[in-house]
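Exam revision sheet. Question 4 asks you to relate a sequence to its structure. Input first:
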Amino acid sequence: MSRPFPRISRHRALQGTAVGVVALGLLLWWLLPLGEKPPSGTIVFSTGTPRGVYQEYGERLRTELGRDMPGLRVKLLNSDGSQENVQRVATGKADFTIAAADAVEEYELRHGRGAGRLRGVARLYDDYVQLVVARDSDIRSVADLRHKRVAVGLPDSGVRLIANRVLQAAGIDPHKDISPMPEGIDTGPDKLRQGTIDAFFWSGGLPTKGLVELARTSAVRFVPIEGELVTRLHSEGDAARYYRTTNMPESAYPSVQQGSAVPTIAVANLLMTRKDMDPRLTEWVTRTVIKSRDGIGAHVHSAQLVDLRTAIYTDPLVLHEGARRYYRSVKP
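Answer key, structure tokens:
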């Protein structure tokens, strides 16, 4: 005969329930402030090009913001990329955006209009420079791009900024020694597939949807960007200090890399806004960014790297007061 389960007293059961309620309350307080009405209104979020990570991340984040703040309308604007994004927020054409740290620093060094109003919200994930060619191409290094037709990104993109610097570090004048093509991730893969360009630069999170599609339909490979180029970049100082040597892991594009990592460089992406943005709204946006990491990361792999411990490091931008409030509220 089996023993019956021990009877739990009503008092102990109530104690257990109370503990559970307290734990749930603490969790909800971390996710969403109890008893506080969510901010409402309209904000403009500048994203990126179709098939790029900025665009997909922006779309996913808009959904998450809608769940937390049902009265908030988020308008998404496509853009060339980081350089245009920084300019839009600085001049009030957008309220929030994502941009690479080197593009932010470059805008500040040029004393771009409104640069002093820029503020950080969170460090998100790293962009990796990806130099793509056809598998049977004779291009084996950045130096081999001389006299080739090379897509260097859209005019106001972060890709253009970093591609030009990488080319110069390799001794190539991006205006004279190559045929520069203004193609981004939305058009570059098709141009390479058609043979109308010889190579294209992309700087984005791993993996980027546009390159996943290219890898699935075409025979391509990645050209390594070796460490000595980064050393030359760093010697330039200023915005180049945000580049770091790294390897694109073999898991990024398995069918292309065939188990091999690819030497390259990376730069951090920052979620940013302006000093005059409402602190309460910015605090709520920051909270949503952090708590939605896993939900967005299930679709945008790069978002899995958003980390509360490193999100506060938004150099060269100081944290917005609203973001600072959030990080203080969850500090152990």
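Marking note for examiners. The chain has twelve helices and ten strands.
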